[in-house]
């Protein structure tokens, strides 16, 4: 019996342990931190051996295979020891893909991947296809392969998950954008981060498809450096002349697959903004590749409501709009958020900095931001960047304090925007927790 060690007792780790158990591996799960009770219950239910708040190094290094949580960097001593011993180390995404022949749709990008994943799932469900979401979203891919097999997996994939793949091959891959993010994990080298994202297509063949954002030089250059075998489908806000192309022509979205055209009016989309036009193009192209009818696609795109914590309109209080964009964990996401503001804005920003260059936001801060409220343990970089531009710049240490201050600063017909441009782990569990706390704080006003 092969020995499988799973490192990390979160969603992906426990899912991998369940799948390993089902596939008759001798499974041991180890987590350096505490494991949540709901995951302990799953492990106990399946009779899987586990430990928390430590790593039994000798036992771990006896593994035939290690499935590593995406949150564990390769530089950790334990991982280096395992590599020295020649133990195969993969991500949960790779491991799960070994045990399914279903259609895999892989979606990655610094921004837009959650929206596109949700859009594609919405399209597939509306068309009556047997589909589910996994990866960075919902129940883990491995758990679903083990217990809830499905014909179509729509997978939201982070660079960390892609770092751990070897043979994983999505039939349709989407790269929504690649802008600086997580550089702290890539030695502050943007090229290494780009290469990581491009791994989504590395095992694709001529039968597969890669939809990519052709307006970003980083992706266009990366395709020259990392050529792929799949059929390329570029998307742009400018007209493109090729057999497979997605572009904006005036107010029309043009989805051209094998010279067959589906068009839609931008105004018919429930979600607004140039970035959402691209998200809609990418999602519609996936649907066309899966032979979904044009009318079904149009109807689905008109009814798609958007994603929680992504430019989510929470409420209007005393003529002040409150918008939750907690999912903006990098500069590029916040760039879109600030760019879409139509009113004078009180901006709540801050958290765990991942190598951010805030000066990229200067044009919108100058133009639209009335006050900045920092919400993070270390706000030094934000203050240094905007101190000479914004008179009203405050530091807070809790969401309740930040929202109360914003409500006092805001006047009628202004907007309070939570768009942190940072990870959330200093004060919150994750971006969802941060977004929920924002909404709860508004209800207390």
Q: What does this protein look like?
A:
With 445 residues, the chain is of the alpha/beta class. The chain folds into 3 domains: 3-90, Rossmann fold, CATH 3.40.50.720; 96-303, UDP-N-acetylmuramoyl-L-alanine:D-glutamate ligase (3-Layer(aba) Sandwich); 312-443, Mur ligase, C-terminal domain (Protein-Tyrosine Phosphatase, Chain A), CATH 3.90.190. The chain is 35% helix and 23% strand. The protein contains 17 helices and 20 strands. The chain has helices at residues 11-22, 37-45, 57-60, 77-84, 92-97, 113-126, 141-147, 159-163, 190-198, 217-225, 274-289, 294-303, 331-339, 362-368, 380-386, 399-409, 431-443, and strands spanning 3-7, 26-31, 49-52, 65-68, 88-90, 103-108, 131-135, 152-156, 172-175, 209-213, 231-236, 245-249, 252-257, 260-265, 312-317, 320-324, 345-349, 369-375, 392-396, 415-418. The strands form 3 sheets. A 9-stranded mixed β-sheet has the order 7-8-6-9-10-11-12-13-14, covered by helices on one side. A 6-stranded mixed β-sheet has the order 15-16-20-17-18-19, sandwiched between helices. A 5-stranded parallel β-sheet has the order 3-2-1-4-5, with helices on both faces. It starts with a strand and ends with a helix.
């Amino acid at each position: 019996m092969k020995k499988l060690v799973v490192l990390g007792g979160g969603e992906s780790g426990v899912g991998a342990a369940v799948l390993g158990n089902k596939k008759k591996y001798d499974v041991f799960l180890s987590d350096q931190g505490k494991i949540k009770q709901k995951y302990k219950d799953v492990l106990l239910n399946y009779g899987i051996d586990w430990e928390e708040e430590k790593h039994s190094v000798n036992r771990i290094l006896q593994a035939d295979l290690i499935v590593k949580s995406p949150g564990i960097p390769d530089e950790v001593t334990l991982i280096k020891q395992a590599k020295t011993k020649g133990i195969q180390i993969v991500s949960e995404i790779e491991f799960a893909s070994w045990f399914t022949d279903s259609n895999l749709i892989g979606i990655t990008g610094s921004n837009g991947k959650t929206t596109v994943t949700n859009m594609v799932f919405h399209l597939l469900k509306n068309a009556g296809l047997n589909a589910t979401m996994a990866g960075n979203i919902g129940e883990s891919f491995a758990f679903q392969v083990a217990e809830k097999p499905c014909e179509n997996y729509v997978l939201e994939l982070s660079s960390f998950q892609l770092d751990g793949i070897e043979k994983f091959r999505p039939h349709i891959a989407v790269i929504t954008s690649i802008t600086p993010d997580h550089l702290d994990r890539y030695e502050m080298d943007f090229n290494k981060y780009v290469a990581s994202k491009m791994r989504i297509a590395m095992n694709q063949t001529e039968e597969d498809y890669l939809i990519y954002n052709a307006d970003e030089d980083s992706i266009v250059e990366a395709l020259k450096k990392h050529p792929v075998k799949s059929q390329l489908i570029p998307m742009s806000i400018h007209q493109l002349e090729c057999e497979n192309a997605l572009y904006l022509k005036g107010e029309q979205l043009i989805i051209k697959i094998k010279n067959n055209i589906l068009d839609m009016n931008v105004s018919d989309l429930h979600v607004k903004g140039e970035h959402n036009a691209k998200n809609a193009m990418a999602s519609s192209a996936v649907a066309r590749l899966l032979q979904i009818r044009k009318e079904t696609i149009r109807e689905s795109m008109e009814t798609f409501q958007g994603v929680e914590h992504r430019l989510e309109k929470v409420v209007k209080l005393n003529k002040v709009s409150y918008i939750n964009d907690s999912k903006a964990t990098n500069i590029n996401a916040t760039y879109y958020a600030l760019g879409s503001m139509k009113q004078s804005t009180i901006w709540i920003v801050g958290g765990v900095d991942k190598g951010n260059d805030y000066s990229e936001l200067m044009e919108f801060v100058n133009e639209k931001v009335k006050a900045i409220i920092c919400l993070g343990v270390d706000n030094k970089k934000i203050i240094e960047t905007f101190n000479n531009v914004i008179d009203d710049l405050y530091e807070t240490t809790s969401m309740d304090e930040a929202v109360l201050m914003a409500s006092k600063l805001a006047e009628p017909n202004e907007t309070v925007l939570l768009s942190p441009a940072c990870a959330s782990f200093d004060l919150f569990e994750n971006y969802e927790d941060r977004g929920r706390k924002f909404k709860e704080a508004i209800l207390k006003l």
